[in-house]
C-alpha cells in the first residue's frame, strides 16, 4: 500500500496518523451536520460555516502533507511517486471544489504539494529531485488555476446573487401591482361598480405605474432604467439575427446657458422641442432621456455609415432655430456613436463608450458626430494612466511650481509672480491643459489646489529679493465652491507667515456662471482678509462686463488672444475693458505680452501691469533668486 510502510514503529506512527485523519474527517462531518441544522436558524451561520469549512480543509491538507514529510525517507521511489500522484489529485480537485474561497483554494494545494516537493528537491536522489521539481511546477500551475477558477466562481456567485436581487425586485414590483389591483377592486366593490369598470380602472392604474417607473415625465421618452433594459434586448436580437446595432449618445451644446439666463420654464420647453426632433429619426421606445440635456437613440439594423448619416441628420435638425415663448434660440449637439457587437455586447458598456466618444467629440474642433474607434480607446486608456498618476503625484513629489513675473507698466518693477503648476510624470512633462481638466473631473483638484496654494505661500514668504511682491495662484470653481476653502486659505497664510495682501487669487471668468450667490459670498470673505482677486481670461467667457459690477474683484486680466490681435480688433476690446475697469476701480493686467511693440502699446493705452515671455518665461523658485530682468525699461 502506498500509505502504509513496513516496520513496527512506522506502522504504529502511521496508525496514529490514520486515526488522526479519520478523527479530522469525523469532526468535519459532525461540523457539517451542526451547520446544516443551524444554517436555517442563524443568519450568521453562513459566514461562520464557511470559515469552519476552510479551517477543516487547511487542517486536512496539513495532515496529508505531514504524512508525506514524516515518512518521506521510508517510501520507495514508486511509493513516493504514487503518493505524490494521489496528493496532486487532491490538489487538482481543489481548483474547482474550493474556488469559492480564493485563500482556501490557493492554500490547499500549496500545503499539500510544496513541503513534499521541497523535500524532493533537497534529496540526494535524482528521481526524487525530479519529483520535487514536478511538484513545485504543479503547485504553481494549481495556484494560477485556482486564481482563475476562483475569479470565475466568485463572478458566477456575484451574478447569481445579483440575479436573485433582480428577481426579488421584480417580485416586489409585482406585489405592488397586485396590491394596487386589490385596492382598486376593493374600491370598486364599495362603489357597486360593474366588472367592466373595474377592469378599466386596473388598466389605467397599470399604465400609471408604467409611466412613473419607465417614462420621463417631461419629454415622455423612456427613462434611463427603461432604455438600458430595452437596449439589452435589442443587443440580444442583433446577435441572434447577425445585424449590427448603433447607439447614439447626444449632448446639447448651449442648453445650460439658456437654462441659466432664461429660466427652467424656457429650458423645459426647449427640451420638449429637441425631443420631437430626435424622435423623428427613431422608432417607438428606442429614444430615451439619459440625464438633463443628454439623450440616447438605439438604431437596430444600422451599420456605421447608416448610423453616421442619421446622427448628422439629428445634429442638423437640432441646429435649426427654435421659437420658445417669443424667443428665437439656437443649439447644437455633440454626438458619439458606439456599435454592437463590434464595440461591446453589454448595454451598460456600450452606453459608456458612446458617452466617452461624445465627450471627445465635444472637446475637438470637428463638430461632426464621432464613431468610437481603437484610437479613441487608446486615448481613453492614456487618460486613465494620467489620472492614476495624478492620484499619487503629490506623495511622489512629481509636482513643482514655476513662477512668471507680472511687471508694472510704469517702472518695470515686479509687482507679482504667478504660480504655475508643472508635473514631471516619470521624466515626461504633462501639460496643465491635459491634467487639470482630468483633476477637476475626478475631484482631485481640491487636493492638488491645496498643495499649490500652500507651496506658493511658503515660497513667497522666503522671497528676500523682493519682499513686497505678491504671489498669484489660480483657483478652480470646484475649489471656490468648497465650504472648506476659506479655512484652507487661513491655514496656508498662518503656516507660511505670508501677509494676506501679498496673496492674489486668479479665478477664470467661466467660474461666475455657476452659483453666483455662493461665489459672491466666498469672494467677499476672501477680500475681507485683504487677499486680492483677479478675473482671469477676461472677455472670453460668459456675460463678461456684467460680472464686474456685481462681484468683488480687484484686478482684470486681459486675455492673451486680445493682446495677440492688438493691431486688429483686439485693441478696441482692450480699450473697452480698460474703460470699464477704471469706472469700477479695478486694476488691469495684460497677459501674453511677447514683443516690445505690444508692451509699449499696452502701456500707452493705460494697462497697469504686463505679463509675458517678453519679460520672462516661467521659472522655478530657486531661479527667481538669481533672475535679473534684463529689460530695464520697456521703452528702451
Low-confidence stretches: 1-8
Beta-strand content: 15-25%
* Structural class designation: alpha/beta
Radius of gyration: 36 Å
First-last Cα distance: 105 Å
Overall pLDDT, averaged?
83
How many strand elements?
17
Task: List strands and helices in order, with pairings.
Layout: H1 8-38, H2 45-70, H3 77-97, H4 102-122, H5 126-190, H6 195-214, H7 224-241, E1 245-253, H8 255-262, H9 264-279, E2 287-291, E3 294-300, H10 304-319, E4 322-324, E5 327-329, E6 332-340, H11 347-363, E7 370-371, H12 374-390, E8 399-408, E9 414-425, E10 428-430, H13 432-442, H14 445-461, E11 470-475, H15 477-480, H16 485-496, E12 503-508, H17 516-528, E13 532-538, H18 544-550, E14 555-558, H19 560-564, H20 570-583, E15 587-591, H21 596-605, E16 609-611, E17 619-620, H22 621-626
Parallel strand pairs: 6-7, 9-11, 11-12, 12-13, 13-14, 14-15, 15-16
Antiparallel strand pairs: 1-3, 1-6, 2-3, 4-5, 8-9, 8-16, 8-17, 9-10
Helix pairs in contact: 1-2, 2-4, 3-4, 3-5, 4-5, 5-6, 8-9, 12-13, 14-16
Q: How would you describe the overall organization of this protein?
A:
The protein has 22 helices and 17 strands. The chain has helices spanning 8-38, 45-70, 77-97, 102-122, 126-190, 195-214, 224-241, 255-262, 264-279, 304-319, 347-363, 374-390, 432-442, 445-461, 477-480, 485-496, 516-528, 544-550, 560-564, 570-583, 596-605, 621-626, and strands at 245-253, 287-291, 294-300, 322-324, 327-329, 332-340, 370-371, 399-408, 414-425, 428-430, 470-475, 503-508, 532-538, 555-558, 587-591, 609-611, 619-620. The strands form 3 sheets. Strands 8-9-11-12-13-14-15-16 form an 8-stranded mixed β-barrel, surrounded by 4 helices. A 5-stranded mixed β-sheet has the order 2-3-1-6-7, sandwiched between helices. A two-stranded antiparallel ribbon has the order 4-5. A hairpin with a 5-residue loop joins strand 8 and strand 9 (414-425). Helix 4 runs antiparallel to helix 5 (126-190), helix 8 (255-262) packs antiparallel against helix 9 and helix 14 (445-461) runs parallel beside helix 16.
Amino acid at each position: 500500500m502506498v500509505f502504509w510502510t513496513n516496520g513496527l514503529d512506522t506502522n504504529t506512527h502511521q496508525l496514529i496518523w490514520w486515526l488522526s485523519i479519520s478523527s479530522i474527517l469525523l469532526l468535519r462531518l459532525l461540523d457539517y451536520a451542526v451547520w446544516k441544522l443551524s444554517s436555517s436558524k442563524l443568519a450568521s451561520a453562513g459566514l461562520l460555516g464557511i470559515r469552519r469549512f476552510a479551517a477543516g480543509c487547511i487542517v486536512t491538507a496539513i495532515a496529508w502533507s505531514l504524512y508525506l514529510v514524516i515518512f518521506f525517507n521510508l517510501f520507495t521511489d514508486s511509493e513516493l511517486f504514487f503518493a505524490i500522484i494521489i496528493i496532486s489529485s487532491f490538489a487538482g480537485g481543489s481548483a474547482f471544489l474550493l474556488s469559492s474561497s480564493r485563500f482556501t483554494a490557493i492554500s490547499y494545494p500549496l500545503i499539500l504539494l510544496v513541503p513534499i516537493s521541497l523535500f524532493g528537491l533537497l534529496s540526494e536522489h535524482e528521481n526524487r529531485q525530479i519529483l520535487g521539481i514536478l511538484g513545485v511546477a504543479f503547485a504553481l500551475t494549481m495556484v494560477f488555476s485556482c486564481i482563475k477558477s476562483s475569479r470565475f466562481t466568485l463572478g458566477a456567485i456575484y451574478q447569481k446573487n445579483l440575479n436573485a436581487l433582480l428577481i426579488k425586485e421584480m417580485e416586489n414590483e409585482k406585489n405592488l401591482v397586485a396590491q394596487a389591483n386589490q385596492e382598486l377592486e376593493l374600491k370598486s366593490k364599495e362603489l357597486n361598480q360593474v366588472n367592466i369598470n373595474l377592469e378599466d380602472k386596473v388598466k389605467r392604474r397599470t399604465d400609471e405605474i408604467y409611466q412613473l417607473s419607465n417614462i420621463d415625465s417631461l419629454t415622455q421618452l423612456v427613462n434611463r432604467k427603461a432604455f438600458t433594459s430595452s437596449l439589452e434586448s435589442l443587443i440580444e436580437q442583433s446577435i441572434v439575427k447577425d445585424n449590427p446595432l448603433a447607439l447614439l449618445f447626444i449632448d446639447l451644446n448651449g442648453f445650460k446657458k439658456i437654462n441659466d439666463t432664461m429660466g427652467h420654464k424656457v429650458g423645459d420647453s426647449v427640451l420638449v422641442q429637441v425631443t420631437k426632433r430626435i424622435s423623428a429619426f427613431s422608432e417607438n421606445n428606442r429614444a430615451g432621456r439619459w440625464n438633463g440635456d443628454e439623450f440616447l437613440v438605439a438604431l437596430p439594423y444600422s451599420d456605421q455609415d447608416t448610423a453616421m448619416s442619421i446622427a448628422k441628420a439629428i445634429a442638423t435638425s437640432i441646429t435649426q432655430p427654435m421659437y420658445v415663448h417669443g424667443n428665437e434660440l439656437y443649439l447644437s449637439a455633440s454626438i458619439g456613436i458606439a456599435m454592437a457587437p463590434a464595440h461591446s455586447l453589454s448595454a451598460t458598456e456600450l452606453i459608456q463608450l458612446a458617452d466617452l466618444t461624445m465627450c471627445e467629440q465635444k472637446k475637438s474642433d470637428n463638430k461632426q458626430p464621432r464613431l468610437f474607434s481603437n484610437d479613441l480607446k487608446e486615448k481613453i486608456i492614456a487618460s486613465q494612466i494620467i489620472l492614476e498618476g495624478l492620484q499619487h503625484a503629490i506623495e511622489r513629489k512629481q509636482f513643482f511650481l514655476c513662477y512668471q513675473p507680472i511687471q508694472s507698466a510704469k517702472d518695470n518693477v515686479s509687482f507679482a509672480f504667478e504660480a504655475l503648476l508643472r508635473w514631471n510624470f516619470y521624466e515626461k512633462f504633462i501639460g496643465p491643459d491635459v491634467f487639470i481638466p482630468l483633476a477637476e473631473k475626478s475631484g482631485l483638484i481640491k487636493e492638488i489646489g491645496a498643495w499649490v496654494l500652500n507651496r506658493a505661500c511658503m515660497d513667497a514668504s522666503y522671497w528676500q529679493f523682493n519682499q513686497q511682491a505678491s504671489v498669484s495662484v489660480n483657483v478652480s470653481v470646484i475649489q471656490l465652491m468648497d465650504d472648506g476653502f476659506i479655512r484652507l486659505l487661513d491655514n496656508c497664510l498662518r503656516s507660511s507667515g505670508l501677509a494676506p495682501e501679498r496673496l492674489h487669487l486668479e479665478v477664470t471668468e467661466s467660474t461666475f456662471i455657476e452659483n453666483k450667490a455662493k461665489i459672491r459670498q466666498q469672494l467677499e470673505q476672501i477680500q475681507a482678509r485683504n487677499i486680492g482677486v483677479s478675473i482671469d481670461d477676461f472677455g472670453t467667457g460668459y456675460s463678461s462686463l456684467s460680472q464686474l459690477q456685481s462681484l468683488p474683484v480687484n484686478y482684470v486680466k486681459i486675455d492673451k488672444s486680445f493682446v495677440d490681435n492688438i493691431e486688429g480688433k483686439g485693441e478696441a476690446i482692450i480699450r473697452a475693458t480698460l474703460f470699464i475697469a477704471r469706472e469700477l476701480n479695478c486694476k488691469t493686467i495684460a497677459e501674453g505680452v511677447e514683443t516690445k511693440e505690444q508692451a509699449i502699446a499696452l502701456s500707452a493705452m493705460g494697462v497697469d501691469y504686463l505679463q509675458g515671455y517678453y519679460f520672462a518665461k516661467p521659472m522655478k523658485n530657486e531661479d527667481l533668486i538669481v533672475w535679473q530682468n534684463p529689460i530695464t525699461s520697456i521703452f528702451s
